[in-house]
Amino acid sequence: MILAIETSCDETSVAVLDADGSVRVNLIASQIDRHQPFGGVVPEIASREHLQHLFPLITRALQDAKLDWSDIDRIAVTAGPGLIGALLVGVAGAQGLAYGLGIPLVPVNHLEGHIYSAYLQREGPAIPLPKRFLSLVISGGHSSIYDVRDGVITMLNRTRDDAIGETFDKVAKFIGLPYPGGPQIEKYANQGHTDRKRFHFPMPQFNDRSIDFSYSGIKAGAIRLAREHGISAAGDLRLLADFCATFQDALIDQLFDRLDAVWTRLGEQKPDEVALAGGVAANGSLRDRIAGWGRQHGVIVRVPEKRYCTDNAAMIAFAAARKPDGATDPRRVSARSRVQ
Ligand code: KG4
Ligand code: ZN
Fold first, then answer.
1. What is the domain extent for residue 213?
2. What is the CB < 6 Å shell around ligand 1?
């Protein structure tokens, strides 16, 4: 039984996972309300909120799971990447618990947590992991495609500038929509019969045939269009809906453009499964399109439960469960804002 702690950004989360990957409990204290007035995450506020919520959340997690400390075999914690002050709260808390209880501590890379999250189920044991799969990690801080083979993770591409979720957030902020922008853009994109050809966003390509992502061009284009057409949350709803639908399509089109390119480059070495991960994987339009892509290519597509898309400790516990040798002396674990 693993108890996991996640505090890398603006969600304090505690989960307990069984040996078979069943999520016993996954509690999330979201801080969105505290950051919303500032239009984005304020690191200092995040750290203080984690400090306030972490231990009450741990107590409640054990109560909800009807467990006591003697049932917990290991503690797992997100050690990075993330906001350093926020990570430190989780890591220090986890160190204290593991040391005090005399049980091992497993430091987990936040991205690894996201990568395996598609295999967790709402109820019951986790879906068995295939020997190999592709993972698209799309969140506020990352946009990358990974090739995962027997637990070895190889990055196939990355973003050269903004992450996809960051682009949703920045453009939403510019037009006056609240943070986080992704779900807001999606909400307006789904307002009835939108004209999806009303605006045009070019597909970014690199001269060196790189298959990296690049979202800064779409971001700048969106801001220019919004300015030219007077698009705003307080303005014309039809215009706003058309803009959100076209902008969302452009962001997702680029995901598929790069996924297709990766797929072609893999030649005969294609995996049987493709998984999504990260906050942007909660997007309904993307979830529908990737299902269609899977049918077209004869591949199994794994999409995480929405509760496991955004940051959560269940995925951290699950990643720790993949590392039988990952436990270390709690005193040797340290938080790192960047991880190679
Ligand atoms: O994985 P996550 O919770 O945090 C990071 O590790 O970054 O992802 C948060 C990101 C935000 O940029 C948010 O706008 C985006 O995920 N997001 C969405 C949706 N829900 C969350 N983007 C598009 N559509 C959504 N429904
Ligand atoms: Zn995340």
1. 132-304
2. 9, 139-141, 165, 168-169, 180-183, 186, 278-280, 282-283, 310-311
